[in-house]
Write a structure and sequence with these properties.
heterodimer; A: mainly alpha; MetI-like fold; 12 helices; elongated; B: mainly alpha; 80% helix; 0% strand
Chain lengths: 289, 313
């Protein structure tokens, strides 16, 4: 069954892929995102120094030939920490968005497909989840459960499940009335098969587009929590944590906060351009614009 | 309109109850014994039991739940575990700061974002449109604390135009306004981006409608077509987005308050997190959720105002 799901799911991927190639902004954004992913994956080989190596003599040193982005308050190499911090950001945000897509998408399709009381109760529960501001919810989950990477992922996932459930439910409602679903049922297909093989591919476009935009939100939430001091524990490098340390030394060494900020901004721009472009190309109402 | 308002109010009540239930279980499910956390691991069993009793944690879950709901609904949020003062009192002390910050950001967002979005839609694919779209992309991309740090660095630290600590001196209203400018601009610009974006796309949709062409062809002045005929219908998605992003605004206000060292719910929440002040956190969650429920309610009521069809349904 999974083979069938993948085979039919490829339609959405191929459509989006073609959309990206024909959309200047989306391909530019995709380029930035690919660079970010590569630099994060290759951080151990790209980073000129160990991100945890301290050197008292280089405390708050300004950019130099050997340390092109300078050193932080422990004399650690900022360039190396930005590269390694990207790994953490990417890992936390990708994993939480994937889980949210899976759980939220499944709940949304189920709610739309089953309908009735189940739908109403589930969507009411999602509304309650949405009643907490993303960041405040993330803050409280991490604060209550303890600041570990696992809890960070849980916190971001929790804030993203409800939006994905909503976006998956809406098209399910219309798709399930279509003839091919009726035909599937007449042929005696199981509900699971109808949902996975016939409904999922029709919902996937919307989910994937929102996935790109939520990846940006997830990176932002992770950075915000680390900035508040509830994210990845020091000494592990994370962009939000680096900005926090930089902010504490903002008068003496402003570049400490500025360089990781630029890193976040570049990735955010990339993801938002990609997400916007994808939305333009996947929304038929906007396509002929 | 009145039946619509009553209906919306009645829908908000169960949502609020559900949200309170989530807050209750959320705080209870979290690992770690609050008594243990308050007293530390050196505490005697008697002391721990005493604190548990004080917090009502020795009661069965159902009793705790009824207790919690009835006190919260009476407007009593308990006393802080750390300062032993009333949670509501502590919140009420800083609440005006957060409210003035979020409201001014909202006003900035709507007052600038709406005309900008309309202008971008009218001058589609011209320089103004590209500039507005670039700006909105930037607004969506900037984490609130990053833009806050940059504003602080430029206008408070380098140029000295505004204070670094945005609290304002008591009894000096001008200093309070002055202290509000940078934080409000920071939150406001992000809001402008959201409002501008949705206004633009909504206007683009409406401007293609037949009734707009009709209005134009019968000689209605362009200004009236845009602001009366088109914007009237284009407002509905704008209201949705403004309502939806109130949550984002509240979240961002936490970060803004931290960077600008401003009193408010954000600083309160971070302090209580550091001190593990459970009752204070519970109270803050209740307040935040309450705000969102109110914001959703206001959004629904605004729908009724903007779109007469909604309230007649």
């Amino acid at each position: 069954m999974s083979v069938i799901a993948v085979a039919t799911g490829r339609g959405a991927w191929a459509r989006l892929g073609a959309g990206i190639r024909h959309h200047k902004m989306a391909s530019f954004g995709a380029g930035i995102v690919i660079l970010m992913v590569l630099s994060a994956l290759l951080a151990p080989w790209l980073a000129p120094h160990d991100p945890l190596e301290q050197d008292v003599l280089l405390r708050l040193a300004s950019p130099s030939a050997d340390f092109p982005l300078g050193n932080d308050s422990f004399g650690r190499d900022i360039l190396a920490r930005i590269l390694w911090g990207g790994r953490v950001s990417l890992y936390v945000s990708t994993l939480s968005v994937l889980i949210a897509i899976f759980v939220g998408g499944a709940l949304g399709i189920l709610a739309g497909y089953i309908g009735g009381l189940f739908d109403r109760v589930l969507m009411a529960a999602m509304d309650v989840l949405l009643s907490f501001p993303t960041l405040v919810m993330g803050l409280l989950v991490v604060a209550m459960m303890g600041p570990t990477v696992g809890n960070l992922i849980l916190a971001i996932t929790l804030t993203a499940v409800a939006p994905f459930a909503r976006i998956a439910r809406a098209p399910t409602l219309t798709v399930k009335e279509r003839d091919f679903v009726e035909a599937g049922r007449a042929l005696g297909f199981s509900h699971l098969r109808i949902m996975v093989v016939h409904i999922l591919p029709n919902v996937l476009d919307d989910i994937l587009v929102m996935g790109a935009l939520w990846l940006a939100t997830a990176i932002r939430t992770e950075a915000s929590l680390s900035f508040i001091g509830l994210g990845v524990r020091p000494p592990t490098a994370s962009w939000g944590g680096m900005i926090r340390e930089g902010f504490e030394n903002i008068l003496d060494a402003p570049w400490l906060a500025i360089f990781p900020s630029i890193a976040i901004l570049v990735v955010m721009f990339g993801l938002n351009m990609l997400g916007d472009g994808l939305r333009d190309t996947s929304d038929p109402r906007l396509r002929h614009e | 309109m009145l039946p619509y308002i009553v209906k919306r109010l009645l829908v908000a009540v169960p949502t609020l109850l559900a949200v309170l239930t989530v807050v209750f279980f959320f705080v209870r499910i979290a690992p770690g014994d609050p008594a243990f956390i308050i007293l530390g691991d050196q505490a005697s069993p008697q002391a721990l039991a005493a604190v548990r009793h004080e917090l009502g944690l020795d009661q069965p879950m159902a009793v705790q739940y009824v207790d919690f709901m009835s006190t919260v609904l009476k407007g009593d949020l308990g006393t802080s575990l750390v300062t032993h003062r009333s949670v509501w009192g502590e919140i009420a002390n800083v609440l005006p700061y957060t409210i003035e910050l979020t409201l001014s950001a909202l006003v900035i967002g709507v007052v600038i974002g709406l005309p900008l979005g309309v202008a971008a839609a009218r001058h589609r694919n011209e320089a103004l449109d590209y500039a507005a779209r670039l700006f909105s992309l930037a607004g969506l991309s900037f984490p609130a604390f990053v833009s806050a740090i940059m504003l602080l660095l430029a206008f408070a630290i380098e140029l000295h135009w505004f204070p670094v600590i945005s609290e304002g001196r008591p009894g000096d209203p001008w200093s309070r306004v002055n202290a509000l400018v940078l934080p409000a601009v920071n939150l406001g610009l992000i809001m402008v981006a959201y409002v501008m974006r949705v206004t633009r796309s909504s206007m683009l949709g409406v401007l293609g409608e037949d009734y707009i062409r009709t209005a134009r062809s019968k000689g209605v002045p362009a200004r009236v077509v845009i602001w009366r005929h088109a914007l009237g219908n284009a407002m509905i998605p704008v209201v949705t987005v403004v309502g939806l992003y109130l949550g984002v605004l509240i979240g961002n206000s936490v970060l803004t308050e931290i960077v600008f060292n401003r009193p408010g719910l954000g600083k309160l929440i971070v302090n209580s997190l550091n001190q593990r002040d459970y009752t204070m956190l519970e109270g803050l969650m209740v307040i935040y959720a309450f705000f969102i429920v109110i914001a959703n309610l206001l959004t629904d009521l605004t729908y009724g105002l903007v779109d007469p069809r909604v309230s007649q349904r």
